[in-house]
Amino acid sequence: MAPSRQKGFGGGGIVPHIFNVFDRSPFLILHIATINPSNMETCLPTSTTSCQAASVIQCVPSGVPLCQPNLDGNVGTGNVGSGNYGNNNIGSNNYGSYNQGLGNTGSWNRGTQLTCNYANTKTRACPIWILKLSETLLIDPSQPRSPPL
Asked: Among 90, 115, 113, 95, which residue's Cα sits nearest to residue 16?
C-alpha cells in the first residue's frame, strides 16, 4: 500500500469488514466515491451499482505484524463484547473506538448500526464536519496527467 509506506508505515492490511456503498448512502447530502488504496483507482457508486469499501485499515510500522483478534474476536484493547475492531468499545461488531452498542462504524457512537462519529440513536444525524477525526486515514492521490496536445 503505497500511501501507508509514504507515511512511514511498512504496509497495511484491510480488516475483514468489507461492505457495499451505494449512491450517497448513508450521507444523502454528499457525493460518495470509494478509492482502492493499493492502486488509487476510484469507484463511483450509483443507485443500482455499488462499490466496495473497508471501514478499517491497519497501518503498522515496518517489521511489526498486523494485530490479531483475541479469543472474543476483538482487535484492539479495552473492548467488552465480541468482534470489535478498535479500542474501548462496549458491545459487539463495532468498527472504531469508544462505541457503545452493536454494529457501529466510526467512533464515539451510541446506538445500533450507526455510521458516523459521535452519533446516537436519537439524532441519527451525521454532519460533514464531524466525519474527520485524528484517526481518519487521508489519501491524497496524484493528479491525473494532462492529455497530450
From this structure: 95
Has this prediction a pTM greater than 0.85? no
Distance CA 79, CA 52 (A): 27
Helical spans, DSSP H, in the chain: 2-6
Q: State the Cα torsion 70-76-82-88 to the nearest 10°.
A: 140
Which is it for strands 34-35 and 42-43: parallel, antiparallel or unpaired?
A: antiparallel
The dihedral through the CA atoms of 129, 130, 131, 134 has a sign that is positive
Q: What are the start-end ranges of the H helices in 61-132?
A: none
β-sheet bridge partners, residue 21? 51
> Contact, 37 vs 57, CB < 8 A?
yes
Residue 21 per-residue DSSP state: E
Q: With contact defined as beta carbons under 8 Å apart, do 123 and 134 qualify?
A: no
| Tens of pLDDT, residues 75-113 | 889 999 999 988 999 999 998 899 999 998 888 999 998
